[in-house]
């Protein structure tokens, strides 16, 4: 009887140590990607983008009423630089938002069930997208911070 009980405990122990279900593994991957996107979004939120927007708007009003005679004028360069910064910020924010919404859609498709092959392919593709976005974000974010500092501390 003791041997049978020991055998049952060993079998139960081995069964409980089996790897996660595929749905859980893919859910963990999605959660990890969402976390990475959230971290990038937090970094973006820490930027002084409103100040850049206000600075840009004030310069734009000036150049909307008169055409710059000399395109190398300092304020015109500042307006162009602020436009570039705002465009970069908008583009990266859009990419993060799109990836987050796509990952959440994949979560809803799985709904605790094992994912089908198309969902697995989409998760794999999304991993690549987030990885590329992170790589690009890291490089460009440092440049953005530097450019914003120069622009706002004119």
Task: Walk me through what this model shows.
Helix content is 84%, strand content 0%. It has helices spanning 2-16, 22-45, 49-65, 74-110, 117-152. It is elongated. The mean pLDDT is 78. It has one domain. The chain starts with a helix and ends with a helix. With 154 residues, the protein is mostly helical. It has five helices and no strands.
SSE sequence, one letter per element: HHHHH
Determine the fraction of residues in helical runs and give it as a percent range. over 70%
- Quote the average pLDDT: 78
Tell me how many strands there are. 0
What is the count of structural domains?
1
Spans of at least 5 consecutive residues whose pLDDT stays below 50 are none
Based on Cα principal axes, name the global outline. Answer: elongated
Strand content range: under 5%
Put simply, the count of helices is 5
User: Which structural category do the helix and sheet elements fall into?
Assistant: mainly alpha
Short key terms for the protein model shown above:
mainly alpha, single chain, 5 helices, 154 residues
């Amino acid at each position: 009887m003791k041997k049978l009980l020991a055998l049952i405990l060993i079998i139960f122990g081995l069964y409980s140590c089996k790897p996660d279900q595929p749905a859980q593994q893919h859910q963990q991957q999605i959660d990890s990607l969402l976390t990475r996107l959230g971290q990038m979004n937090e970094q973006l939120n820490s930027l002084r983008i409103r100040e850049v927007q206000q600075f840009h708007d004030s310069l734009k009003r000036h150049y909307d009423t008169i055409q710059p005679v000399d395109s190398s004028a300092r304020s015109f360069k500042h307006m162009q630089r602020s436009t570039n910064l705002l465009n970069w910020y908008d583009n990266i924010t859009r990419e993060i938002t799109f990836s987050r919404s796509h990952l959440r859609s994949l979560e809803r498709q799985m709904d605790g069930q094992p994912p089908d092959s198309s969902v697995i392919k989409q998760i794999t593709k999304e991993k690549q997208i987030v990885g590329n976005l992170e790589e690009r974000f890291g490089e460009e974010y440092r440049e953005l911070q530097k450019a914003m500092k120069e622009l706002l501390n004119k």
